Structures are given as C-alpha cells and as structure tokens.
Amino acid sequence: MNQLNEAAIETDVVIVGAGPAGLFAVFELGLLDIKCHVIDILPRAGGQCSELYPEKPIYDIPGLPEISGQGLTDNLLKQIEPFQPTFHFNEMVETLTSLGTPEKPSFRLTTDAGKVFLAKVVIIAAGGGSFQPKKPPIPKIEQYEGKSVFYAVRRMEDFRDKDVVIVGGGDSALDWTLNLQPIARSLTLVHRRDAFRAAPHSVTAMQELVASGKISFKLGQITQVEGVDGELSTVLLKGNDGVEEKLSCHRMMPFFGLTMKLGPVAEWGLQLNENLIPVDTEKFETSHPGIFAVGDINYYPGKLKLILSGFHEGALAAQKAHRYIFPDKKLLFQYTTSSTNLQKKLGVS
Q1: With 50 as the cut, is the pLDDT of residue 54 above it?
Q2: Cα gap 213→93, rounded to integer Å
Q3: How far is it, in rounded angstroms, from Cα 47 to Cα 131?
Q4: Whole-number Å distance between alpha carbons of 195 and 269
Q5: pLDDT in tens, 146-183
C-alpha cells in the first residue's frame, strides 16, 4: 500500500450527504453490519430539513402526523446511534475515482479538506446537490478565500488571537460569534439591520456580549477588503447612515445563506438527466456499479421528491450494497419486530 493510501480512511460505505435519506441509509446499512462514513458540506446533519426549515412542520412522514425538520433530524440521529457512524461535516467530496471492477467495486474519494477515503460502495444522498455558500459582492474577495476569508470553520485555532469580523444575521453568524468570541482578540458582528433570523437564546447571548463590551455590533455592510498575499488586514464598513470606517480584520466570515448546486458530482462520470442521477428502481444503483443515489438527487420514471421515497430507496440500496461488501455471505432478510439478532444490534433486547 502506498503512502497516500496509508493515510486514507477505509470503510465499507461512504455516504455523500447527511440529510434524511442519507441518515436512514446509515440505519439500513447498520442492520446489515455495514460500517459507513458520512460526508456533508454543511456544519451539521439534517440537510434541507435543518438548514431551510428546521422549525417548519412536516406532515407526510408515515406514523408522525406532524414533526419539525429539526425534530425529524434529531429522531433519525437517535435511531442510528447504535451503529456509530462517523460524520465529516464542513467537507465536500471533490473527486471520486473507481479502483475496482463491476463485480468487485471499490472507490477512492477525496474531500476539499484533504481527506482520502477508500470504500467498497458509495451512496450519493446529496439532495438537490451540494449546499454552497453565497459569496458577498465584494471586489477581489476570492483572493482571500481559504486563507483569511472563510465560509465555514474547519479549525477554531485559525481564529485564535485574531481580529475577526463576522457578517450576517442567521444562526451560523450568531453561533460562530458566540463560539469564537472567547478565543478571538476582537470580534465584530456586522449585519444590515438590528433584527436576526437566529435562535432567540443566541441573539440574547450575543446582545449580552455587546452590552459587556466583549464584542462589537455594527449596522451596515462590508464593501471592500484589504491585505497582502491573501491575508486580510482591514475591511471597509459602510454603515446604514452612509458613514464609512475601516475595521482591523485578520479573519472574515460572511454568512449570506446557501445555494444549491450539483457541484463536483457532475464530474464523477455518472450519467445525468437534467442535473439528476438516473437509477434503476430495483436497487437504486447508478450507471456505475457500486455507486447508488437516493433521495432528491436521483431520477427514475414516477419519481416523487418525498422524504419517504428516500427512505425506501435507501433500504433497497443497502440490500445490494451487502452483496458487494460481503460477496460470500448469504443475506437473510429479517424484521426488526421479530428478529432478536436485529433487536440486539439496536440495543432493545
């Protein structure tokens, strides 16, 4: 094994996407003793449920007359606890390379965080594609991205003893304001208005930090950035009153929301149909053996973009995945209601 592969994370299955379909696939795989790692570009599990409508009621989940998007996510996470999946948040799969054969597939995946995965099966559960940050309309900001302008936090130490400017008024902006304040040299929160789209307790905690002088809050927007070799030194704030001022800034985090794009999936060599991935309806496998697609990202005749459809698709994908991962092991179908073996795995017997 070469040096690159020695640093790789080896697993049975890599699931791309931690929305409801991806989370339930963990459950179905776990029942079959299949281990998996889950990669998502977002900072937490839940996909659209957590990011777009965490408090909005959902009425079409079987057996649950009403549940919020976050409530469904929390229940799914609790359901898969016995199988101890490993999550990799704030990461995007950039490349997927086939190493095996149609009969014995294997894959190498790399992420934008530099991680390498070796897996026998890949399940794409990326919703409508990857959520990617909306970039602010600031000239030359791309020169600083990845060095001093960040859209997600990979290492909190990168912000220690720095002058930090956070722009936005949603949950991400408020969460990182609270998390980074203890380690930053200074922290300034910038928002266009004195109203926030964040959890009330986070807003209250932020306002208490402002009142105690531990952070600054500015009404307005950042219009220019300055620095050398990708490292910020100052940013220009244009206040709502039209007055401009320069702020010392070594690290800036703009939180302007998310947009959905197919992203690198389009470069993986799979057949596509209008930015969706065609699959069969027997096992929800793509044009490439060993790669499956479940949830909103797949396409087949009669497809309905419902969460419950993703659950069904994940269950059938897991059955075929078992044949790839344990080719010499006969798969005996069992029900969780009657199988003491499955109940033991779930910790209920």
Answers
A1: yes
A2: 41
A3: 8
A4: 45
A5: 899 998 777 789 999 999 999 999 988 999 999 999 99
